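Supplementary Note 3. Input sequence used for the single-chain structure prediction.
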Amino acid sequence: MDRMISGGTVTTRRDPRNVTGRIVGVDIARFLAILGMMAAHLWTPLLIFTPTTTPAGQAAEVVGVGVEGNAAALFAVIGGVSLVLSTRAAARTRGPGGVLLSVLGRALVVIIIGLVLPLVHTPILVVLVPFGVSMILSAAFLLAPSWLVASAAVVLGAVGGIVNATIRVGLGLSTPMEGDSLDIRVWTENPVEALRAVLFTGTYPVITWVVYMLAGILIARGLLRARAAGSARRSALLLAAGGVIAVIVAMVVSTGMIAAFGAGLPAGVDPADSRYGAAPTADPWLQLVAAPHTGTPGDLLRTIGIAAVVIGLCTAVWDRPGRRSFLTRWVQAGGAAPLTMYCLHVLLTATVIGIAGGPRTSAWYVYGPGAWGLQVAVLLLLALVLVLLHRRGPLEALASLAAGALSRLAPRRAPDAVGIAVTNDLIPDQPEEMQSVDATPVKHPLR
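The predicted structure, written as C-alpha cells, is reproduced below.
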C-alpha cells in the first residue's frame, strides 16, 4: 500500500504486487544468528582445554573465526529489522505514540528477563539488558525518514568507537569490561557502574548496538519496499552483494592498518584479537581495525556487511511464492522465537555446567561440537512443537502482550489522519501476516 501526501491529506493506494506472508528469510537468518551465538558460547571455549595443534582445537579455532562477534552482530541487526516489522500494526492503528509504546513494552520484557536470567550460574555474558535498552533508544528512529536514520548510524558508528575506547582508558579499568551480564545484583550493588557498562564499558555497549539496530531498520524498509515493488529477490541479492563489498573493504583497510601501525602496541596486545566491546587503546588507527567486539568503524562495517550477506541470501533463497516446505516452516519457527530460544540455551548451559561440577571442564556435553549439537537438537525439538501447534514462543507471546497493552494507551488514530508515523510513508503497508512473530498476541500459524 502506497501513501501519498498531497495538499495536507494522506491518501492510500494498494499495490496489487504486495505479497502476503512473513519474511521467511529474516526468520531463517535469525535462527542462524542464535546457532552462531551458541557456537561462540559452547564451541570456542574448547580452546581453553584443547591445543590448537589437535583436530578438535583447530575446528574450534575455525568456528571461532566464523562466529566470534559476527553472530551477535547479526542478532542485533535483525533486532532492528524486527523493530520495523513488529510495530507496523501499532503505526496503522495508534500512530507514532503507539509505535513508541509498543517498543517500550517489548523492551521492558527483554530487560526484566535480562536482569534475572544471569542469576543462574553460567559463563555466558547475557546480552538482553543492553539489547532492550538499544531497542528503546532506537525506537524514535522508526518515525524518522531513512536519510536521517542512515545519517545517525554513520555519525554514531564513526565516533562511537573512539568515544568508547577513550572512556575506558580514562577510567583506567582494571578489567577489559564492566558489568558482566548486568543482572539485578550489579544494578543494586553499583548502579553507576551498571549504567556506564550498558552505555559504554560493557561487552555489548549500547553505543555500538544502536548502530546495528539502525542498520536493521534500513534493511527492513528496503526489504518491504522491494516486496511491494515485486523485486524482492533482486533486492535481496543486491543487499548480499553490498554486504560482500563492505566486508572486503573493512578487511583490506584493517589489514593495512595492522601492517602499518601494529608493531607500536604494547607487547602481547594483538590488534586483531576479539575484545570486550572496545579497542584495546584509544589510538585513532585502531578505529579502522575490524577486530571482533571492538565497536570500531572497521568492526561495524565488517559485521554489518556480514549481516547483510546472511539476511540477503536467506531472503533470496526462502522468500519465494508458493507453499513452504515443512522443513522451512520448522526452522522458521525456531527463528521466530528468538527470546525463548536464547533463554533456553542459557538455562541448558547452566544446567550442564552444574552437572559437570563447574565451568572449567572438558566434558563433551558442556563444550565442543557434542555440546553444541545437543543443544541445537533441544532447540529444534521446541521449534517442532511450536510449528505443529501453530504457536509462537512463550516469551514472544509475553513480550507481545506487553507491547499491545502499552500501545493501546496511545489514542486510536482515524483511518486518514495526518501525521501518522513517518515510516508508513516510507514503507509500503503490508497485510497483518507480514508482521514479525511478536506483532500480534493471537495464535499465528507459520506458512
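The longest helix spans residues 232-261. The radius of gyration is 22 Å.
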